[in-house]
Specification:
five-stranded mixed β-sheet, 22-stranded antiparallel beta barrel, mainly beta, Maltoporin, Chain A, 4 helices
Length: 718
């Protein structure tokens, strides 16, 4: 029987006691600020947007001392991530999303936009320097974003340039030799032009100790990020914007231990590095009282290195006998009958993305159908390339190149059918061209025509309650597997379609002091793309093969609750809860038995990977005085399967975070802590044999997330 964690019990008790506050006391509280979502076609109040959206603002980012998206994703109901790298850079929404990338290109299920620039699949760059808010849109985004948003979209929006001069300088220090320095400045360049520039350097030794090398920084963090923005008012009705994003990530990767702790024995620790230069140019113009023109052109180039020590141990071995080659040094202790090996794996990828989006929107006099209907119509084109060079110890060097051309037309209408009710309906048609070639001559050249969209009925029940029901269809393009060992039938995998039904209720109570958002959803997954992997052994040496297959069907359904309650002028309570039931309804996989013979395993009814049944985040923010503030947060997550190809699970956990800040004029000092109880959280897991000490017998392996982190911060704002 499942039991909800202590933090959920505490949240329930808090809700019960807080509900006893009299109406007179509640009326004394100040109302919550309006939160605007920018990822939609039109900026909208989050309480008036008929879909499930979480907005994580600067206050919550600061409360978590968050440097990267991985630290705040739990604030969104049914949001999750997978690591297998220096950062959690593979994201899941409602149990749908990728867990890793090795040889083959991946079409991610969760999109990632940074200031309008498509960074999907490059989650290492999801840093939070000078960020205004993170918007997490849950559910298929078939009309707005197309193939990259089957499960949802994450939109990171940095702070805009301001007319008045402002800025800050800040520094942080913490345990594990962690330190960060950042600065930002914003203001007017001319009467009609503003600029903003921000830069940050973040370094940490990391949380692993390499016993063999005698180092504590083989899993280090070393990141430099910069953002720049220009805004120009060309006329009363025309605005120009330019954004620049730079990331220089040079992290180590040495995260798996043969003892499943924070001590490693690898002699060739890996690298998790990324260098990105990205630009976005936007032009918005109100052509007349009926039509608005919006255009955006983006370009991004990223060079990525991902490497690791395959055997997680030290020592070199004779290729003919599998015994330790002592002429090259000592080896980790090995069971006598075992065949030792020492491999390294390196992936060098170059990404290039260019896009153009042009749309027309109705203005105040442009509504059609007797003035009842707003409209948006647009066209989008993107060119993507991804080249790979892989160097794997026992094999010849492998190379591949992927080129994708995507062209979309989309339209969305919003029709008032009564004073309280509105229908929103949209469709997107996308031509997807995929040209993949590699050094194994197992490439493909595919062209598909894909369709997505949505139909929403919303009803303003009264001034305090908005109810809606949405039918949506999302898609993720198919592709090809490159591995030479897969069968011709397994070579191609088909496009996945998700059909989603969502019912929601958004409420504002007690004169807008309490806001709630509730959503229930059911997603039917057709041709579900499932990443499979198997391990074969040659003289006891494991060889890993990944490929993508289509499950016949799956379903993901659940409930999501969010609330923000300004209890008193000094006290605010936030709550986020997600319940998820994600399972295969028709799926079989091919596996090997103990005699290395093939067999079929029925996965019907099994939970999908990275889909915890519950997740909770709750927190209190308290202003003791105008100068002194406190925040206390807790997050909890249920166990979940690490993969669809094996049955290892993570352990459920509860984490606690806190921050105390003192503000005196422009100066602020803060003391912060994450994971205060030092709870172990498992962020990636496998099952295979890799320990020479036990003869490479199959073992459960896990990567551990952050330990207890504490530090202090100083900031001067002007």
């Amino acid at each position: 029987m499942k039991t909800l964690p202590l933090s959920f019990a505490i949240a329930t008790a808090m809700l019960t006691s807080i509900s006893a506050i009299s109406a007179e006391q509640a009326l004394e509280a100040v109302e919550l600020d309006v939160v605007t979502v920018s990822a939609d076609f039109r900026d909208s109040n989050v309480q008036e947007l008929a879909e499930a959206v979480t907005v994580i603002g600067t206050d919550k980012i600061d409360a978590r001392n968050a440097q990267h998206l991985e630290s705040v994703l739990s604030l969104a109901p049914n949001g999750n991530y997978s690591s297998g790298a220096s950062r959690g850079r593979y994201f899941q929404i409602r149990g749908i999303g990728e867990r890793s990338q090795f040889v083959d290109p991946v079409n991610p299920s969760v999109g990632l936009m940074i200031d309008g620039i498509d960074m999907t699949g490059l989650g290492g760059a999801a840093t939070l320097l000078d960020v205004k808010q993170v918007e997490i849109l849950r559910g298929p985004q078939g009309t707005r974003f197309g193939a990259n948003a089957l499960a949802g979209m994450i939109n990171i929006k940095s702070k805009d340039a301001t007319k008045d001069t402002e800025g800050y300088v800040a520094a942080k220090v913490g345990n594990y030799n962690t330190h960060s320095e950042s600065a930002a400045i914003s203001g007017s360049i001319t009467d009609n032009m503003q600029g903003r520039l921000a830069i940050n350097s973040f370094q940490s030794e990391g949380y692993m100790k390499n016993e063999f090398l005698g180092k504590e920084n083989t899993n280090n963090i070393d990141e430099v990020v910069a953002r720049g923005k220009l805004a120009a008012q060309l006329s009363a009705n025309t605005n120009l914007g330019l954004s620049y994003f730079y990331a220089d990530i040079d992290n180590g990767y040495d995260a798996f231990s043969l003892d499943n702790n924070r001590t490693t024995y690898s002699d060739e620790p890996g690298i998790d590095a990324q260098e990105t230069h990205a630009f976005a140019l936007s032009l918005d113009s109100k052509l007349n009282s009926s039509v608005i023109l919006e255009t955006e052109i983006t370009t991004a180039k990223s060079d990525v290195e991902y490497s690791y020590d395959v055997d997680w141990a030290f020592g070199k071995y004779d290729e003919n006998t599998g015994n330790c080659d002592t002429s090259q040094g000592a080896c980790l202790e090995m069971k006598p009958e075992a065949w030792g090996y020492s491999y390294a794996d390196q992936y060098l990828r170059d990404y290039q993305r260019n896009s153009a989006d042009i749309r027309l929107l109705s203005a105040e006099d442009g509504r059609i159908f007797a003035g009842t209907t707003d409209w948006v119509v647009g066209a989008y084109h993107q060119m993507r390339s991804e080249s790979l060079t892989r160097s794997y110890t026992p094999d010849p060097q492998y190379s591949s190149e992927l080129k994708i051309a995507s062209t979309s037309l989309y339209i969305e209408l919003s029709t008032d059918i009564t004073e309280q009710a509105r229908v929103i309906y949209g469709v997107r048609a996308e031509q997807w061209q995929n040209d993949f070639s590699n050094s194994l001559n197992t490439g493909s050249d595919e062209t598909e025509l894909l369709f997505g969209g949505q139909l929403t009925l919303e009803n303003l029940v009264n001034n305090d309650h908005l109810a809606y029901i949405t039918l949506a269809r999302g898609y993720k393009a198919g592709g090809a597997n490159s591995a030479s060992v897969v069968t011709e039938k397994e070579r191609i995998f088909d496009t996945e379609y998700n059909n989603s039904l969502e019912l929601g209720l958004k409420s504002s109570l007690f004169n807008d002091e309490l806001v709630t958002r509730i959503a229930a959803f059911h997603i039917q997954r057709k041709n579900q793309q499932v990443k499979q992997s198997f391990v074969s052994y040659d003289d006891g040496v494991p060889d890993f093969t990944d490929y993508i297959a289509n499950a016949a069907e799956g379903k993901n359904q659940g409930l999501e609750i969010e609330s923000q309650w300004q209890l008193l002028e000094q006290l605010r309570w936030d709550l986020s809860f997600g319940y998820l039931k994600a399972e295969f309804t028709d799926y079989e996989i091919s596996a090997k038995d103990d005699d290395d013979a093939s067999k079929m395993i029925d996965k019907k009814g099994r939970a999908q990977a990275l889909a915890p049944e519950y997740g909770l985040a709750t927190g209190l923010s308290f202003s003791a005085t105008e100068a002194l503030t406190f925040s206390l947060e807790s997050e909890a997550k249920d166990e979940f399967y690490f993969s669809d190809s094996h049955d290892e699970k993570s352990k459920a956990y509860v984490l606690w975070h806190a921050r105390v800040a003192f503000q005196q004029g422009p100066f602020q000092a803060a003391l912060f802590g994450r994971n205060l109880t030092g709870k172990e959280q498992e962020v990636r897991g496998f099952n295979f044999g890799n320990d020479p000490r036990d003869g490479y017998s199959n073992t459960r392996w896990v990567q551990l997330g952050e330990p207890r982190l504490v530090g202090i911060e100083g900031r001067y704002s002007f």
